[in-house]
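Collaborator request, handled under Task 6.
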Amino acid sequence: MNRGGLTSIGARVFGLAWRLLLYAALLIVGIRGLSMLVKAALNGLGVHFAHPDGVRPVESLILSQLIILVAAVVATAILMRTDRARPPPMLPVSALGGARFFQGLFWGVAGMAALIGLIAWMGGYRITGGALSGTAFGSYAALWVGAAAINGLAENLAILGYPLLRAAQTLGFVPAILLMSVLFAAAHVGNPGENPIGLASVFLTAVLLAASIWRTGNLWLSVGIHAGLVLAEDFLFSVPDSGEVYTGHLVSSQFSGPAWLNGGSAGPEGSVLIFPLLVVGLALLWFAYPKPASPRADHV
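Structure tokens returned to the collaborator:
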């Protein structure tokens, strides 16, 4: 390759790097600023969500994910307006987008059900009774449906939206997927109860989500998969999620046996059984969505 070609590649990589750094700065400033505003507003109104010690209220999850979502939308809008090599539409409003979301929701719930089923079959998980009934069931079911959808939108857009698609235009999709999956896992490092196996599975889950974006060309399938995982893990099967435990569990559940089997404090994503399931999930994704969609700079 001649010097001119190397110079051109270097300029493109440098341009990508400073744009991603600017995006990260806008995202972090937005999250921190909005968090302070929301906290001040809640304190001023005297709003406090009841929850036992060591358990986070699901309402706080919704608020924190809404903050991430708003900050990601603003950061993305600013970068998109100043970027000549704009990524393709990330969340196009269409019937196909809606269908992809619900397909992803099914696969997310099914995947978590398969993992919990394997853990239970090997003696690591059991349901000890129901935890919700009557109006509490309806209220928490609605809260968790909303929390799962917002969580899927927020985290996918924040890390696997503009950063992934823009990086793919410069580096290619495979390097971009690996880079953003590392960042996705790094965002979970501070969660209480998280462990190395759990972080490795978060990384591979991000690879699966990013690959779904590569295969379909937008975020809807990945958002649905993410939402399905959250809904099944936190509400339906009522287990820790990345080391976090929230209010509003559908059932009372119990882990038993070694942490390598059930994931321990990290939840089922810390189980070694998740790795073969993620490989199977990636293979199914590859066959179900066979035509990769390359990012194009001419889309608005």
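The cover message to the collaborator said: "Residues 3-45 form the longest helix (43 residues). The mean pLDDT is 88. Please let us know whether this matches your experimental observations."
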